Automatic annotation (TrEMBL):
It holds the Pfam family FA_desaturase. One of its GO terms (molecular function) is oxidoreductase activity, acting on paired donors, with oxidation of a pair of donors resulting in the reduction of molecular oxygen to two molecules of water. This is Fatty acid desaturase. The lineage of its organism: Bacteria, Bacillati, Actinomycetota, Actinomycetes, Kitasatosporales. GO terms for cellular component: membrane. Residues 72-334 form the Fatty acid desaturase domain.
Length: 359
């Protein structure tokens, strides 16, 4: 049984090391030139995000007026998107720790999302980024409910995965929160029931705070506009979830993204890890606005190569990474967002059945 898609002949050890050394040089250049411009960028995004959230909350406070509801919901949606994608995700990767600012640091940031930051950093930063697309090791490969590779065992429930993949999008933060609990680790004996219950309690406290803020406090403060304010908050969270689902799935599951077996990563060198990150991720193309709203994760390949580099640098280094891949014959998956989105759904449909639809 082969990975999806079929693996190309590997680079020779010497060529692989050359490839890895070239990527190390790109990383070193970015690290050496981080400075005031990067700091201004992230502080500007934070200021814009907070301004949009304040404006959205104020508009929803008088959202009995339809124009105010539309404006407030739109501003709050963008604010929540920026907070999750360009701020929370990237700050928790330690991309801005070099600034030494305790307010913009991976150890202190708690993002506007149901999952507690420490749980996210374990399942995402450690497990996913270390074992990207390794069947049996990367739990983000289908999030334990989707079959995205022929190496994953097929079960009849997978016939329904196109349906529940679509239903997951508007409630994505809830799906991720439950996924981050790693309930399967309890049944497999890798986590104690006591530890699991502690994590459930931790998640419950965060969820109560999040729900109380969006669905109780701000609607009550809106007085006569309580119901439209509540609806605006529900809509903003739902749209943010759909967008996050789109960006993440398009960066990991288009049809030309490879999966790997555990045997393939035995004794894996740093250069081979780089090769797996490139082949296990996909970019999508777009302008500045799309880049910022996606947390610069349209450059998912660059993010997986260098997860702790400032996100605003990914667009700068992407052409160099692509040329390097062309030089060494390493596949570099990229394309318009719509095409990557369609390809991702093709993969969901293809692996919903127990046979290979491409044969």
């Amino acid at each position: 049984m082969t990975s999806t898609p079929a693996a190309l002949p590997p680079l020779s050890p010497a060529r692989a090391e050359e490839f890895g050394a070239a990527l190390d040089r790109i990383r070193a250049e970015v690290v050496a030139t981080r400075g005031d411009e990067d700091a201004r960028y992230i502080r500007t995004v934070i200021a814009v995000q907070r301004g949009l959230e304040a404006g959205g909350r104020l508009a929803l406070a008088v959202s009995l007026l339809p124009p105010a509801w539309c404006a407030g919901t739109a501003m709050l949606t963008v604010a929540k998107t920026l907070e999750n994608m360009e701020l929370g995700h990237n700050i928790l990767h330690g991309q801005w720790d070099w600034m030494g600012d305790p307010a913009i640091h991976s150890t202190t940031w708690e993002f506007d999302f149901l999952t507690p930051a420490d749980a996210w950093k374990h399942t995402h930063n450690h497990l996913h980024h270390t074992y990207t697309n390794v069947v049996g090791r990367d739990r983000d490969l289908g999030y334990t409910i989707l079959r995205m590779s022929p190496e994953q065992p097929w079960h009849p429930v997978h016939l329904l995965q196109p349906l529940y993949a679509a239903l997951l999008a508007p409630v994505f933060e809830w799906g991720i929160a439950l996924y981050d609990l790693e309930a399967d680790a309890v049944t497999d004996g890798r986590k104690s029931v006591r530890a699991f219950l502690g994590e459930v309690a931790h998640l419950a406290r965060k969820a109560v705070r999040q729900c109380a803020k969006d669905y109780v406090l701000f609607p009550l403060l809106a007085g006569p506009s309580a119901l439209p304010c509540l609806l605006g908050n529900v809509t903003a969270n739902g749209l943010r979830n759909v967008w996050a689902h789109t960006v993440i799935f398009c960066g990991h599951f288009p049809g030309d993204v490879r999966t790997f077996t555990e045997e393939e990563i035995e004794d894996e060198s740093r250069a081979q890890w780089y090769l797996r990150q490139v082949q296990g991720s996909a970019d999508f193309e777009g302008g500045l606005l799309l880049r910022v709203l996606s947390g610069n994760l349209g450059h998912q390949i660059e993010h997986h190569l260098f997860p702790d580099l400032p996100s605003n640098r990914y667009a700068e280094i992407a052409p160099r990474v692509r040329r390097l891949c062309e030089k060494y014959g390493v596949p570099y998956a990229t394309g318009p967002l719509w095409r990557q989105y369609a390809s991702m759904w093709g993969r969901v449909l293809r692996h919903a059945v127990p046979w290979d639809l491409r044969r």
